[in-house]
Specification:
The protein is built from 3 helices and 4 strands. By secondary structure, it is α+β, with helices and mostly antiparallel strands. It has a domain of about 60 residues: Membrane-bound Lytic Murein Transglycosylase D, Chain A. The strands form 2 sheets. It has a two-stranded antiparallel sheet with strand order 1-2. The chain has a two-stranded antiparallel sheet with strand order 3-4. α2 crosses α3. The protein is elongated.
Length: about 120
């Protein structure tokens, strides 16, 4: 093991060593780019050789309804029924109440709690 003392002269590597280091760095960078490019295509499924599909089905066969969510803060005196009616002013709210109840696992509502409702458009 060589001990380097500050101020002590160390010879610089030769041009051949620099050249080999540059070639090695270039090859590593090229391999990294090639692997990331292949990995990106593998992850995104972008092969470019056919129509866009999701899980083997053409996109035109899939339901493309937009799903968003609405945050509701529980107020004192709120029930699942009143929250469902506020979120869905018209129509039958029983499916929404049932869905809310299933997500709550029987826990009671607490004032100030935030409930996230999925909204299908």
């Amino acid at each position: 093991m060589q001990v380097v003392v500050p101020g002590q002269y160390r010879p610089r590597p030769s041009q051949a060593v620099y050249r080999r280091r540059r070639i090695a760095a270039l090859l590593c960078a090229a391999a990294l780019v090639a692997l990331s490019w292949q990995g990106l295509h593998w992850l995104t499924g972008m092969s470019g050789d056919g129509p866009l599909t999701v899980a083997g089905q053409p996109v035109s066969n899939l339901d493309t309804a937009l799903v968003t969510s609405k945050r509701i803060i529980v107020q004192p005196g709120d029930t699942l029924w009143s929250i469902a009616r506020r979120a869905q002013p018209t129509g039958d709210v029983r499916p929404l109440v049932s869905q809310l109840n299933a997500h709550r696992d029987g826990r009671p509502l607490q004032a100030g709690e935030t409930i996230i409702l999925p909204i299908h458009e």
